[in-house]
Amino acid sequence: MGAGVSHEEAEKYLDRQEQLIEKLTAAVAARKKEQSNGGATTTLAGGNTPAWLMAQQNQFGDEQLSNNTAASQEIPTALYDEFYGLLERARAAERRRIEPAVESYESELPNAEWKAPTEEQAAALRDSRPWLAVMNKPEGFEYGATDAKPSVTLELEHVYGYRSSGTRNNLRWTSSSPKGQGLLFYAGAVAVVHDVTTNTQTFFQEHTDEITALTVSKDGTLAATGDQGKYPCVYVWDVETKKVRAKLTGSLRRAAASLAFSDDGHLIAAVGLDDDNSVVIYDWRRGRVVAEAATGNRRILEVVTNKEAATKDAHPFLIIGEGGIAEWWGFDTKSFSNNQRPLVKSPLQLGSIGESQTLTSALSTPEFTAIGTNNGELYITRDFKLHRVVDAHHGPVLSIAANSSFSILATGGYDGYVSQWSAENGFRRLSSTVIPTSAVSSTGSEDSAASTTFTRPNSIRAVDILTNAISGAVEALLVGTVSGGVYQVEPRPRGTADVITPLLVAHGGDLTTVNCVGELTGLAVHPTEPKFVSVGETTLFLWNTVTRTAIKKYRLPARGQCVAWGSNGQHIVVGLHNGVFLVLSNTLELIKEVRASNRRVQCLRFSGDGTVLAVGTADNVIQLYDASSSSFELGGKLSGCGGVPLSIDFSADGKLIQVSDQMYETIYFDIRNMTLLNDADARVASNVAWVTFSSLLGWSVQGIWPQGSELNDVTSVSRSADGVVLATAEESGLVKLFQFPCVGGGIDYNDGLLHKRPDSVRGGGHGGKVTQVQWLNNDTTLISAGGEDLSCFQWKVVRKA
């Protein structure tokens, strides 16, 4: 370096040398690995490539690839959720139907006066509607006695969840909470403002389907959220009061994939998930579309505000996405069409230093724009031209944020690292912190997965920066991860490790399986204390509903399906897909592992006195185990289910169990004699008192089925401990409360239709399928588990005087 070289030029030279050294080091390591593997090679951009990233590149089969463009065949596993996961869920949402409210005239419809079927009729019913063959009217039952809407209110108290799949940049600091320590995010169809100081939440609940995009106005007072479905909605709302400022509908299709306010706050740009990848620009104050255009067959991953001083007025938005698309969009001021302003675009000019590749994230500042690439680089652009390339991450750069002065950037990558960069110092890396795959819970309990081998990293879904209002210094980074965790990262001086603090923990992507987001399927409550457990894929969480925190997280050895909590509170049993059930203590210490079958354990239930555990497996068998101690020895097996058992209930006297199965049968067993009840004896069972009632079929739950529904539209039922209220979970995303028994006008076995619907109290928020509902012991709290939203909702149930 000769005399006369500026400080900035020297910094750039040293920074580039550092990058070259990293690449050289990586090349040497790759060569050594190649020799040790007998010559096999894997070529990737960036240095020091982690083993999980080398194993995951380009693993799509032809059937998984988009047919739109050849460029999509270059999409790595890292972007599966954005390209395919979101699309699959949005298409499912297009078909979802919300049942209309019960009309007053329905109460005047006649009842289906029940008569027990003859033997000939019962034989015919077994082929079409088998549960009706053994159903019977209980003694003393009167129609209409429990048809009215229950005298309760259902209020959402807390959301244990954070959407970590399919969408990104869905997490923000907000100043609507004390000391500015508020979080804004979404789970299911609910936008959540979470106060870190008090661990309390407030909600925006206008959406009826899952939220897929979030943006915040420049001053942070307004949020815009967009959802999925046949006709997606975009709401603009006040972050503090939750009041709707605008509802924008009618132009987007399938889902709002990304949203951005214009720099002046007057406009909102939205990217649709339709086949044309449309961009729609709203004047949200007037509630109308001012411009829209189809961008072509390349998927748009993000739209952001253009803040570059020289170009933002003419081109207020930037879109980036598949196949190297990077275009600044603005209005054609010379013409109008159908009261709309045509859009014009200016593409990014790569020059000789950039390559065309999928662009994954972007952030604009008054001086430059930073664009994250699929190969892990940052493209630094000015005036639509690429000026610099910075090696940033191993794999796609998934999120970019900046402090208030735009002097510091933060990037989050698929590799699980969060890095800080000095924009004033030649984009030198200031720090790099990996978010652990095995983090402590909010109470400090260690995740049991410390030794688990993961096949993918805890990739970063969102990054935001909390800036000191006076000095402008970075106080903390806010980080959302694919495993469902939200963390605060406090920067420390160079050479000292940053401090990572979990703010929220929740179910998320299964890091032991490539691209497996999974489903939340298991839920159980403590018999006397305000605690519950939830099972999603290979993770079990123990929650406290008073402190609203996770007590402990437990890594399952295989995919979980169901869970039960013993009536004495001492044992938690988890059923797995590999046919094993685990017996855990109430502090999640493993007591015993029992193989019940070679097929999955589908359902579990303890007897009322806690001495017997019934286990239903996918080979259509019910097994009974001795739960009086910790031995859990097999006591016998019950056969006779025509399909996989879905639910089990014990009679109050402990003599019978009732089972509903996938073949729509209701089956009764005498567990004293280990025999299946015949039809005549089964009809008498309509007068039996049950400790719990979880059967989807039977006299007491005839009225739960939505209008025009299929028999899989209701996924779970749970009767309150006092026997007065019945909670149901639906495919539609609704949680409902009925009076119990829930019969309505009854079902006529000649047509199989419900004659009139009883009214219910409805709770929305999950957006997609609700898989489980469970009452806590005091009947004033209800817990619901979403399926793909991987969230548990805590509801306050208040009885009206």
Summarize the SSE layout with pairings.
Blueprint lengths: L6 H30 L14 H6 L23 H15 L24 H10 L23 E9 L10 E4 L7 E6 L2 E6 L4 E5 L6 E6 L5 E8 L4 E5 L5 E5 L5 E8 L5 E6 L5 E6 L4 E7 L5 E6 L11 E5 L4 E6 L11 E5 L11 E6 L4 E5 L3 E6 L2 E7 L5 E6 L5 E6 L3 E6 L5 E7 L25 E8 L6 E8 L4 E5 L8 E6 L15 E6 L5 E6 L2 E6 L4 E7 L4 E6 L5 E6 L3 E6 L4 E6 L5 E6 L5 E6 L3 E6 L7 E6 L5 E6 L5 E6 L4 E5 L4 E2 L2 H6 L29 E6 L5 E6 L4 E5 L21 E3 L6 E6 L5 E6 L5 E8 L2
Antiparallel strand pairs: 1-52, 2-3, 3-4, 4-5, 6-7, 7-8, 7-10, 8-9, 10-11, 11-12, 12-13, 14-15, 15-16, 16-17, 18-19, 19-20, 20-21, 22-23, 23-24, 24-25, 26-27, 27-28, 28-29, 30-31, 31-32, 32-33, 34-35, 35-36, 36-37, 38-39, 39-40, 40-41, 42-43, 43-44, 44-45, 46-47, 47-48, 48-49, 50-51, 51-52
